[in-house]
Amino acid sequence: MTETKKGRIVLGQNNYGKSEVRVFRVKRDTERHEVWDLDVRVSLEGDFEAAHTEGDNSKLLATDTMRNTCYALAKDKLTGSIEEYALALIDHFLEAGPTVTGCRVEITQYLWERIEVDGEPHEHSFIRQRGERKATVRGDESGARSVEAGIDDVYVLKTTNSGWENFLRERFTTLPDTNDRILATIVTAKWEYNTHEGIDFDRLWNGVMEQTLKTFTDHYSPSVQNTLYRIGKAVLERFPEIERIWYSFPNVHHIIYDLERFGIENDKEIFHATQDPYGQIEGWVERA
Ligand SMILES: O=c1[nH]c(=O)c2[nH]c(=O)[nH]c2[nH]1
Fold this sequence. Notes:
Elements: E1 16-27, E2 34-46, H1 49-54, H2 63-77, H3 82-96, E3 100-117, E4 120-140, E5 145-158, E6 183-193, H4 201-217, H5 224-238, E7 242-251, E8 254-256, E9 271-273, E10 279-286
Antiparallel strand pairs: 1-2, 2-3, 3-4, 4-5, 5-6, 6-7, 7-10, 8-9
Helix pairs in contact: 2-3, 4-5
The chain binds uric acid.
């Protein structure tokens, strides 16, 4: 026997928008071109009740229109940082959708560097970098805006000045101590700005990237956890505009390969770069 719950059925939280809008812009007002290569996702919140419950689309901005808008606004608004472009899109969508109360724009920027020819950066030829720049901007009809920036898929490694020692030993512990190991990780980061007015988003993004890499190199790492905290602290000390920062550091293990079996000495030269389960170390560093 099936039981039917009595009561009214209503529409719960909902949002809609367009994903994977691939906007590519070339700035070509001089011989030295610039490119922006973006994946944009737009998501709207508001009163979309009539569309869901009555099939009345009359107040809905089509997702196809949202896609067109991303390209159209790129002409005048995608001239600097992706954060500024996202803020312009949000202003637009809050205005354009009659029942829209909130909007989120998430952007992934793929990074292209100039190809160097005989030591000279080329004017219109580029090579795609590994690593991505991210931005998530939220806004509502009250005028509130929040800006989060990020880094994804930046693979870094150091061949020494890292260890893992004096950790808890109990019945199932087999791992030996080491004070000299390879430290490798694929950086994901996101951080929140405490304002969106008067911020040079490009300078700050480059600064966080630079500081992340610098601090990664500049100390003996007793653990990924300690390195995560040190990097976050260095970023917050340098940039008062940033309220808090989150890192995800998978520990991509490099295990010394046993060559003694073959009578070959292996003084931390030959490693197995594992695909096996990896450690995953994540955390926020924030202002108290
Ligand atoms: O930096 C590390 N943190 C850990 O928590 C951990 N655990 C482990 O087995 N190796 C490591 N390395």
